[in-house]
Amino acid sequence: MDRKQQLEVFQAQTENLRVLEQGWKHIKRGIHRDLLANNKASVELQTKVLALTYCAWSEAAFSKLIHTPHCFELDEIRQIKAAGERGSIVTAWEKCVALALRKIQSRNGNYVPNVKQELNRLIKTYIETPSQLRNKVAHGQWQVALNSKNTAQNPDLTVSLANLDLVKLDLLKKGCEGLCLIVEALVESPEKAFHRDYWPLLCQVKEQLATASQFTLAQKLQLLRKKREFAGDITLRSTGPARKAAQAG
C-alpha cells in the first residue's frame, strides 16, 4: 500500500460510514414503530439486522481511523492489520493504541501508562466484551449461539443474544465512537492538541457512556409513547379550528 491507496481506502470508508449511518437511523425508526405497535417478532428480527449493521459500522469506523491521512505511517498500518489477521479486532485495536501512544514523546512519568490504561478499559468494555456476540450475529447464529468450534451450543451467549436490544446496541456504538474520537485526536496531534483535549474529551465520553448505560429499553418505549401522544395532541390542536370552520360552513 502507498499513500495514494491509503487515501482511497480512507475516502471509501468515509462514504461507507455515511451510508451505514443512514441505514442505522432507518432501522432504528422501524424498531421504534414496532415497539409502539407491540410487534415483538419484528422487533427481534430488526434488532438482529441492527446488530449486523453495527458489526459493519464498527469495522468501517476502525478502518477509516487507521487509514486517516497524516496519522499512521504505512508500516504502522501494516502492523495493525497484521495484528488483526493473527488475532482479532481486539488485538488490532490494542496494536493501534500502542502505536499511537509511541507518538507521545514529550511527557514523562505516568502520563502515557495512564492514557493507555484508560483506552484499554474502553477497548475491554466496548470492543472485547461484545466482540463474541457480534461474531455470532455476523455468522448467522441469531437465536442459538454455538461455541468457537461450532461443535456445541453456548448457553451464555444464547442468553446474551436474547437480551440484545436497541438500547444496548446504541450504547456499543457510542462507546466505539468515543474510542475512535480519542485515538484520532491522539494520532493527529500527539504533542499539542491531544494534551489539551484528551482529558476533557475522555471525561465527556465517559459521562455520556455512564448516562447511556443506565437507560433501558422500557424507558425508551416510555419516551416513544410520550412523543407519540405529544404529536397527537399537536395534530388535534392544529386541525381543531379548521374542523370547526368546516362544520360551520
Major sheet description: none
pLDDT averaged over residues: 87
Strand content: under 5%
The tally of beta strands, per DSSP, is 0
Globular, elongated, flat, extended or rod-shaped: what is the shape? globular
Give me the Rg, rounded.
22 Å
Number of separate helices: 9
Range of helix content: over 70%
- The helix/strand order is HHHHHHHHH
Total domain count: 1
| N- to C-terminal distance | 75 Å
Structural class determined from secondary elements: mainly alpha
Give start-end ranges of low-pLDDT stretches. Answer: none
Task: Describe the fold and architecture.
It is built from nine helices and no strands. The protein is mostly helical and 249 residues long. The chain has one domain (3-216).
Which helices and strands appear, and what pairs or packs with what?
Blueprint: H1 3-36, H2 40-66, H3 74-86, H4 89-101, H5 111-138, H6 155-162, H7 166-188, H8 193-213, H9 217-248
Helix pairs in contact: 1-2, 2-5, 2-7, 3-4, 4-5, 5-7, 7-8
Q: TL;DR of this structure?
A:
The protein has 249 residues and is an all-alpha fold. Helix content is 80%, strand content 0%. Helix 1 runs antiparallel to helix 2 (40-66).
